[in-house]
């Protein structure tokens, strides 16, 4: 299993945000919203050992 540092995680999240914002097909507000969503999901999953919560 690979371990990532907090710096690696931030680099990955920032790279995703940059790619979303650079996409000419996305409205800038939507790109920002998607970047925020990815960051929030990443933080949530990284704090829960990467397990997805499933509804019963």
Topology:
Elements: H1 6-22, H2 28-47
Q: Could you please describe the fold and organization of this structure?
A:
- The protein is mainly alpha-helical.
- Helices cover 66% and strands 0% of the residues.
- It has 2 helices and no strands.
- It has helices spanning 6-22, 28-47.
- Helix 1 runs antiparallel to helix 2 (28-47).
- The N and C termini lie far apart (29 Å).
- The mean pLDDT is 82.
- Biggest beta-sheet profile: none
What is the H/E order? Answer: HH
Cα-based radius of gyration, to the nearest Å: 13 Å
Helix content: 55-70%
Low-confidence stretches: none
State the end-to-end distance. 29 Å
Q: What structural category do the secondary elements indicate? A: mainly alpha
Q: Quote the beta fraction.
A: under 5%
Strands, total number? 0
Instruction: Give the mean pLDDT.
Output: 82
Molecular shape: flat
How many separate helices?
2
What brief labels describe this structure?
56 residues, mainly alpha, flat
In summary, what is this structure?
The chain has 56 residues and is mostly helical.
């Amino acid at each position: 299993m690979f371990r990532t540092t907090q710096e690696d995680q931030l680099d990955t999240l920032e790279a995703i945000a940059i790619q979303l914002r650079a996409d000419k097909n996305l409205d800038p507000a939507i790109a920002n919203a998607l970047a925020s969503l990815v960051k929030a999901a990443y933080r949530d999953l990284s704090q829960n050992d990467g397990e997805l919560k499933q509804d019963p």
